[in-house]
Design a protein that fits this description.
The structure is a single chain. Helix content is 39%, strand content 6%. The chain has eight helices and four strands, in the order ααββααββαααα. It has helices at residues 13-27, 45-51, 91-97, 118-121, 139-151, 157-174, 182-192, 199-208; strands at 66-69, 86-89, 122-124, 131-133. The strands form two sheets. Strands 1-2 form a two-stranded antiparallel ribbon. Strand 3 (122-124) and strand 4 form a beta hairpin. Zinc ion (ZN) is lined by residues 56, 58-59, 61, 89-90, 92-93.
Length: 216
């Protein structure tokens, strides 16, 4: 996970939010009446996807993707059409996250304050491919990070396999080239880009291998 700057809400969302939100607020949390059937957030799939460069906001894998309600609509129906509550996610992450919302919540990939951002909460083990809580976190923050990793199964075998395989590709492509080699620099820029999938573990690996500098 890494920080994603969401930018302003797309045009047209405000009218939709005003029109459709009350139905959800009325239905949840008591589930009174009929469940609203509108899912107009799907009409903003492309807007949400482009903010995240088509990479899942949680596991960073690229995917056709879906619009996730970071704070689930069952618990926060007033936020169902809130741009700030939408995260681009892969199908697997969306499926396991479902309506979960633990006490303390999850780490928001679009958090504004620096110490609430994913970079403050997580680090990567580039050997195993695991995402881990930053060791220096307070107990409460450590719990939030661990809960998120567990609930979203961010260390599931299929994730680890992809991360490790990708780092092998990166390693192979660089082939021990000098950090100043123009080809190496070009490649590093590409794979470290937030537009490229798995950029956070890749950046960690590049840092460890001495390929990252201030220009990346
Ligand atoms: Zn995902």
């Amino acid at each position: 996970m890494h920080t994603v700057i969401r930018g302003p809400a797309p045009g047209g969302l405000r009218a939709i939010r005003e029109k459709y939100t009350p139905r959800w607020v009325q239905y949840y949390p008591t589930k009174t009446g009929r469940k609203p059937s509108d899912s107009k957030w799907q009409e903003f799939h492309r807007d949400v996807s482009s903010v995240f460069f088509g990479n899942c906001g949680y596991c960073e894998e690229d995917d056709k993707g879906e619009v996730d309600h970071f704070r689930p609509k069952s618990r926060f129906p007033e936020r169902v059409y809130e741009w700030e509550n939408w995260v681009f996610v892969c199908h697997a992450c969306n499926h396991v996250k479902g309506g979960k919302w633990p006490a303390g919540g999850y780490v928001d990939p679009c958090a504004k304050s620096r110490n609430a951002r994913p970079e403050a909460y997580f680090r990567f083990d580039t050997t195993t491919g695991e995402i881990l809580p930053t060791p220096t976190l307070s107990a409460a923050r450590q719990r939030r990070a661990k809960q998120m990793i567990a609930d979203l199964r961010l260390n599931a075998y299929h994730h680890l396999k992809k991360r490790v395989a990708w780092l092998r590709v990166v390693n192979g492509a660089l082939d021990g080239r000098d950090t100043n080699d123009p080809k190496a620099r070009q490649f590093v820029k590409l794979v470290a880009s937030r537009e490229t999938w798995l950029s956070t573990i890749t950046r960690t690996w590049l840092e460890e291998a001495g390929y990252m500098d201030d220009t990346n």
